[in-house]
């Protein structure tokens, strides 16, 4: 079911892109319904089943570093764009080489967020307990 829903969502997105005669709202619904089914199939049984058996369960450990990634990805991207001299009007072409670059950048940002989280976000509970202890709070 998950594979079917994924192909339906992808197929709908490709079909809508090729059909320029559709109104925007109709195209949005054609893409949104299969995408919602895909999300529902990915999350169904997430709590009931073992988390290792679901797709989201395999990636849920990355959620521990999500705030760190959110906090640092833009400054890193701005630094990267500045260092490479990329101008706003110069867009990357949609070819295999540039998609590979994009995947490398996303992987690098994710790894950087995870490393940053290991030095900060992963210690939140320990620091909270220490502060509460010092203040005599529960």
How would you sum up this structure, described in words?
The chain has 138 residues and is mainly alpha-helical. It has two domains: 1-44; 62-138, no CATH class. It is built from six helices and no strands. It has helices spanning 2-18, 24-43, 55-59, 66-84, 96-119, 124-135. Helix 1 (2-18) packs antiparallel against helix 2 and helix 4 packs across helix 5 (96-119). The mean pLDDT is 78.
The percent range for helix content is over 70%
Q: List SSEs in N-to-C order.
A: HHHHHH
Q: Strand content of the residues, in percent?
A: under 5%
What coarse outline follows from CA principal-axis ratios? extended
Spell out the blueprint of helices and strands:
Elements: H1 2-18, H2 24-43, H3 55-59, H4 66-84, H5 96-119, H6 124-135
Helix pairs in contact: 1-2, 4-5
Give a nutshell description of this structure.
The protein is mainly alpha-helical and 138 residues long. It contains six helices and no strands. It has helices at residues 2-18, 24-43, 55-59, 66-84, 96-119, 124-135.
Notable traits:
138 residues, mainly alpha, 6 helices
